[in-house]
Amino acid sequence: MYFCSRNMENNNTSKMGIGGLLRRLLPFVTPYRWLLVATLTLTFLGSLMAQVNAVVLDRAVDRINALLHLDGGFQWAEAARILVIISAVLLGKEVLAALVTFGQRIFGEKIRINVSRDLSLRVVDRILTFRMAFFSRDGNEPGKLQTRIDRGIMSLSNTVKNFFIDILPLFTSAVLALVLMYAANVYVGLVATAIIPVYFWITTVQGRRMKGWRHRVFGTHQQLSHGILNIIESMGVIKSFNRERVEADKQAALQEQSTDQQMQTRRISFLYEGLKTFVEQIGTVLIIILTAYLVLVNYPGMSIGKIMYHVMLFANVSAPIRQLHRIYDDLNDALVYAEGFFGLLDADAEVEKSGEWKVESGERVQGRFELRNVEFTYPSGTHALRDLTMTIEPGRTTALVGLSGAGKSTIVNLLDKFYAPDSGSITLDGVPLGEWDTQVLRDNIGLVLQKNHIFSGTIEENIRYGRPDATRDEVIEAARKAYIYDQVMALPDGFDSNATQLSGGQQQRIAIARMFLKDPPIIFLDEPTASLDAIATEQIKNSIDAIKQGRTVIVISHNIGQIIDSDCLYVLDTGHCVQHGTPQEVYRQGGLYKEIFDASARSMNVDKIADTLA
Ligand code: ADP
Predict the structure, then answer these.
(1) Ligand 1 center to 410 CA (angstroms)
(2) What is the DSSP letter of 70?
(3) How many angstroms separate the CA atoms of 41 and 214, rounded?
(4) Are 165 and 112 in contact (CB under 8 A)?
(5) Is the CB of 408 under 6 A from ligand 1?
(6) How far does CA 360 lie from the centroid of its chain?
(7) Which among 81, 327, 374, 404 has the fewest CB atoms less than 10 Å away?
(8) Would you call 526 helix, strand, or coil by DSSP?
(9) Which residue, among 600, 594, 592, has the nearest Cα to 572 in the 3D structure?
(10) Domains recognised in the chain with CATH numbers
């Protein structure tokens, strides 16, 4: 998807043509084909009715004219008859036209809204299948992704409306009006037709000039919404460093750029609009002059009423063509946004790969992970793991130790199949990880991170996320085991309280309760107590000790107390394993572990703690 956002910002030519765009949209429209047929039928009726005014006026003017020049003098009865007929026809037509337009709009909107919903459902379904690497790539940040999706859906559903609802009525009306003009007089028809290519030409030049600007406006828009999201997410840091001004200036610069770009597009747009109106007026003047001339020279079939008739028909020809630029603009927008949007739907390479391997029902996953010569680089280019070889023994607790950035969390990311290694092999119970059914694998793994994401919703809903079919009693039991039950009950709404209002430590215990409910044979704990106070840390240590029994556990921690409890530990340095063995053995070896251990003991002031406790 990286390529998509790049294209949008730097590339001025879309690869997808209008034909391609419509082809991609068609499958989304076909489910509503009957609605479409109804809309188009109403459209055709509407186009027919649009010509009624011209025909009625043509006849009326000639009749009234004849009445004025009648030899026997003016006849009031005949005049009244003409007026009643005109009024009845015009009023009747207006009532019918209002009904037809209403039906056409309602049906059209129904198609647009339904297509918009389907596009949105499809893209969400799709994104949920993507592997983690997709989301950590440049250009796929939340704000940018959101803009790409929002804009895509909006402009694609507009295209549906434009093409199927707007263009067709306009053009049927234009074609009908043109046919009537030719039928009345070929020369007048030719003058009206001659204007059309000029219009098309101006619209095409306008479109070409606007295209580059549209790409730029879109790029800036993406940056703006990403920037605002970033500000909201980092509010605490911004305020604590008094960087409000800096952030506001960054946004101001972007807004300035956006304003310039928008003004530039408007300037181009207004210039060409003016040109088109001018051409249209010239067309109208030519038609008036030509028809007046034909009437004056007594050309067969020409009467004074024809001047009005031709001008009104020409208005029906030019009105839709005048709309052409808007539709052309929208289509060009849609081409830009469609590329990003369909890029998401097409990104098969981003879909998480799943193998077929499943455990037999009743059989339990053991949890023996073997990593052999694993190399891994993040999409951003960070070479996080180098020639890593290690074995995680089933039913035991293995600690991963190392300085920050050594690659400990990356190992967990790989074992959970969030990412795939560049080379080397990883097996679980002897089966390569790639061959495991991803869902089965993750059903068997419980993951507790330093910051566990709590969804907006009640505490009960959040715990139940671990196993949606759990009973309320099971949820309560899990909360008890995670030492959070009493605190939840102390809240006014108990388990129905909003989970996002809990403190970091409480949220952590909700996540642990969630894992108790899931009850997986393999558990990854990535600094689960890093943000907790001492009492909470001890309580969580107790609950983790309870859950560890008979399971394969990998714990990443800077807390020496948790590390020395492990059966085995691996020491990592810049993505490479430098030591391993039991905590005592590795300590005796000296090296990095001893350095970390001693520094940790010193930082805890162990001597004074011992004195205090004595
Ligand atoms: P640790 O858990 O030991 O602190 P990590 O495994 O988180 O270390 O990180 C190892 C290296 O990979 C670091 O240099 C870090 O910056 C980088 N890294 C971690 N996560 C990502 C990511 N999602 N995208 C790009 N680089 C990452």
Answers:
(1) 6
(2) -
(3) 35
(4) yes
(5) yes
(6) 38
(7) 404
(8) strand
(9) 592
(10) 18-350 (1.20.1560.10), 365-443+524-583 (3.40.50.300), 445-519 (3.40.50.300)
Going by C-beta distance under 8 Å and a sequence separation of 6 or more, which residues neighbour residue 443?
Answer: 520
**382 C-beta closer than 6 A to ligand 1:** yes
CA dist 444 and 447 (Å) reads 10
CA 404 to centroid of ligand 1, rounded, Å: 9
Task: Please give the pLDDT value at position 427.
Answer: 96
Q: Is 11 in the pocket of ligand 1 (CB under 6 A)?
A: no
Q: Whose CA is nearest to atom 5 of ligand 1?
A: 407
The pLDDT mean for the chain works out to 87
386 close to ligand 1 (CB < 6 Angstrom): no
How many whole angstroms from 382 Cα to the centroid of ligand 1?
8
Question: SS3 of 521, please?
Answer: coil
Residue 398: Cβ within 10 Å count: 20
At residue 578, the 3 state secondary structure works out as strand
Q: List, in sequence order, every beta strand (DSSP E) within 403-514.
A: 423-428, 431-432, 445-448
Q: How far apart (Å, rounded) are the C-alpha atoms in residues 46 and 176?
A: 11
**C-alpha 538 – ligand 1 centre gap (Å):** 28
Tokens of 157: 């559903």
Residues in the chain: 614
Q: What is the mean pLDDT of residues 273-280?
A: 89
- Ligand 1 pocket test: pick from 140, 377, 382 the residue with the most ligand atoms within 8 Å of its Cβ: 382
What residue spans of 444-548 are helical by DSSP H? 459-464, 472-481, 485-490, 504-518, 534-548
Q: What is the DSSP letter of 96?
A: H
Which atom of ligand 1 lies closest to the CA of 556? Answer: 2
Q: What is the pTM of this model?
A: 0.73
Q: Helix 33-50 to helix 168-184 angle, to the nearest 10 degrees?
A: 30
Taking the mean position of all CA atoms in its chain, how far away is CA 305?
Answer: 56
In 3D space, the residue among 315, 297, 291 whose CA is nearest the CA of residue 188 turns out to be 291
Pairing relation of β-strands 369-377 and 423-428? antiparallel
Contact 137, 2 (CB under 8 A): yes
Flag the least confident range among 26-40, 193-207, 270-284, 538-552: 538-552
Q: How far is CA 411 from the centre of its chain?
A: 30
